[in-house]
Protein: Putative drug resistance transporter
Organism: Gordonia amarae NBRC 15530
Amino acid sequence: MNTATPRAAWRTFAIVAAVHCLVVMNDTVVFVALPSIGRMLGLAPADLGWVMNAYLLSLGGFLLVGGRLADRFGRRRVLIAGLIGMSLASALAALAWTGPVLIGARAAQGIAGALVAPAAMSAIADIFRDTSERAKATGLLGGVSGIAGSVGALAGAGLTELGWRATFWFCVPTAALLAALVRRHLPDRRGDCALPDMLAATAFTGGVSLILLTITGIGIRPAAVTALTATGGVAALAAAWHRQRTARDPLLPQALTRSASTVRGIGLNAVLGFGLFGGFLIVTLFLQVLHGLDPLPAAAWMLPISGAMFAGSLTAVRLLAHMPPQRVLRGALTVQAIGLGCWAVATHADAGMPGYGVAGALWGLGVGASLASAFVWATRDVPRPAQGAAAGAVNTALQVGGAAGVAVLGWTASASGGVSDSGVVQAIAGAAALMVVGIAVTGPRWSARPVTIPPELATAPAAETFDRIVDAGVRLDNPKARQEWPACELNC
């Protein structure tokens, strides 16, 4: 460890975890306030989802930028800048006088969060040098993310009783306090990575936004408008892909894309985000619209999910000490799929609130374990200088997947002209099917195969670059490769 004592290291980790929780809570704290926001600001149901998606998309679209900035200028500097920006954007959201102003403020919140999230997650590499301690902290942080989402929804319900603006005011002093704690306790280190590609990040965010706007506009907006947004989205994503392939310093370091575990871990985080944020939206619609519960009682019904997420994350941390993360993740996704399936059956059979609570708790158990193990799987083979970029990629997948889940599952639940039992069942069944796809991706056929290290690299010094090793065909998740080059670094 690079701190004076283990106690000091875990104290610093607690601050980093609190910062990360604030970013996640800003995702979900407004869920139960959405009906009130719609009434007060005159937002139509089709537009109300953009109060969520403006945050999710700007956060997801610029996380890679935030990760590269953290690698270049240091985690502490970027964390402080992001927390101050988040505090100011939250104040603007609380003062919003129209729907577009609120949506714009939410986008600003997301950009600030994009500075905070990858810097917080990658700071673990600065706090802990011991591999086992770092893995334990990484697993805990992934699990805490799921818990923070449920706590955010519950806190949002309580704050909504004071008025929907209170859901944004709470972030103003909280972010300022955390900035002061980060300045006092977090180590300050700077790297020499290149500046991020802002053009690629902007094209990526715009492309995903237009695609989701297309999905939510089907059957609502004119066909010509839908075709235009779809074409624009595809063109923007193609431009972002071209920049990634041809830029001298691409937004996502190309060496990261050559690690099988990193690529699949990032993809699995997109699947988890789809189910997590889309699932929370369905829970909100199910409880408040179909069952007529007020915000606070509705949030209280989410407590079993929160408790199960916490239990799932702790279970995953223990299991990760004894088995590969993909095996833990496979089991967690199976539990998620079973929980979602039970929820769909309970809704179809009108099993009552206790039945929904049991199914939701089972789903939450799988979510907590999945988030912890997926993050470990995606980042375990990434050298320390590139942890910021890797954490940004993981969070990008989680948030963009979440935005897609909010758009697609919300549209599915209300496709018949309003939220209905049949629409909810179809949305839940779709999420369960996606978890099954995730199980297939983590299956044994994707496991790492033994690799023979080329003779010319077998005697290479420990400082041999990451890029050359990968170019030679050595898999990062191969134990022999890690043993031969324990100090290999990534030229980011």
